[in-house]
Amino acid sequence: MNNINKLFSNQNTSLTNLKIQSEVATIEYCTLVKLSINNMHYALDIKHVHEIVDAIEIAPYPEKIKNHLGIINIRGKILPVIEIEECKNKKKKDKEKIVAIAFSNNNLFTLKCDKVQKYLYEKNALVPGQIINLNNVPTYFLDEEEFNTLMRSLI
């Protein structure tokens, strides 16, 4: 023990003067909703998801409109159902969901999805339009601008 005290005294330092500082970085997370549509995957912040319902019957339009499957009634609102990826297999799947999405302009869009999942993701790591990894699945992250661009290309 004498040797240790001599070592610290020679350096003008003592054990009591040593300070250990640690900084704990806070990481913010956001909840993402991943939409799987015909083997394509899209994610958006949960705050933009208005409602998720089990697939209900879609009333077709009298004439074919590109990328529109028809209309549905969700809580008294008649909404168009948009098709992002054309489905080659038109069979109804057991677990299909209808997702109503609303951004700041409060226009509701509904999408028919094969699967809907929820994930926590580091908020600072999100860049609109980027491909993110959600459970080893490449997923396209959409913010309002990206989503509106996608919708304009379809409608």
TrEMBL record:
> What is the protein name stated in its UniProt record?
CheW-like domain-containing protein
Query: Which GO biological process entries does UniProt record here?
Result: chemotaxis; signal transduction
Fetch the InterPro entries from UniProt.
Answer: CheW-like_dom_sf (IPR036061), CheW-lke_dom (IPR002545)
Where would I find the CheW-like domain in this sequence? 29-155
Q: Which organism is it from?
A: Fluviispira sanaruensis
What's one Pfam family the UniProt record gives for this protein? CheW
